[in-house]
Write a structure and sequence with these properties.
Structural Genomics Hypothetical 15.5 Kd Protein In mrcA-pckA Intergenic Region, Chain A; Ribosomal Protein S4 Delta 41, Chain A, domain 1; 202 residues; alpha+beta; five-stranded antiparallel β-sheet
């Protein structure tokens, strides 16, 4: 299954939540109307399975994962000790592409994924082009020297302001570090993790 590259508004309206990296007043007004010509007429109550599937879709869309990737991630986490819901969020949040976005080096997760895939991101000063790489505590994330003055990156950093999550630390010359694993209380995710666990436990 190929990664979705169509209109992001359509995806957000499909699940009824703004899953985009930026707020949009026009999208906010239409969130409760499903996409399509008959969107207003198609609204119906979801079954338990439908609710579980919708939450799974929200998580996949938010982090830009394909079904197989997300299923493997959840199944891997379920075999570990600890709070499964918290482990799912922590694993998603510590992906390299997500941390590049969270550190403010990219305006969106999609832009962050492209930066990583094209070899513009370094981990401990070594080029790493795997977006799904699980960053470990203490590892340094930075932009390649030739991309430190890239206008898009500099604009993203400028717009970041001081909205840095508590498990991250900013360093010098467009660098950052994961100081600890994320916890549930660190951020609000736009999906119900328990319903996702139930979906894959069927």
């Amino acid at each position: 299954m190929a990664r979705y590259t169509g209109p992001k508004h359509k995806l957000a309206r499909k699940v009824g939540v703004n899953l985009l990296d930026k707020s949009s007043q026009s999208l906010q007004r239409r969130l409760n109307i499903p996409p399509g010509v008959h969107g207003r007429k198609r609204k119906k109550r979801l079954s338990e399975f439908g609710l579980q599937m919708r939450e799974k879709q929200k998580a996949k869309i938010t982090y830009g994962l394909l079904e197989k990737q997300f299923k493997n991630l959840v199944q891997a986490v379920q075999s570990k000790k600890g709070d499964t819901g918290e482990l799912i969020v922590s694993t998603l949040e510590t992906r390299l592409d997500n941390l590049v976005y969270r550190l403010g080096f990219a305006k969106s997760r999609m832009m962050a994924r492209q930066l990583v895939s094209h070899g513009h991101v370094l981990v401990n000063d070594k080029k790493l082009n795997i977006p799904s790489y699980q960053v470990r505590i203490g590892e340094k994330i930075s932009m390649s020297p030739k991309f430190e003055k890239n206008l898009q990156v500099l604009q993203a950093v400028e717009e970041r302001a001081d909205n840095l999550l508590s498990f991250l630390k900013i360093g010098k010359n467009l660098s950052g570090e994961l100081t600890r694993l994320p916890k549930k209380d660190d951020l609000q995710v736009p999906f119900d993790v328990q319903l996702i666990i139930e979906y894959y436990s069927r």
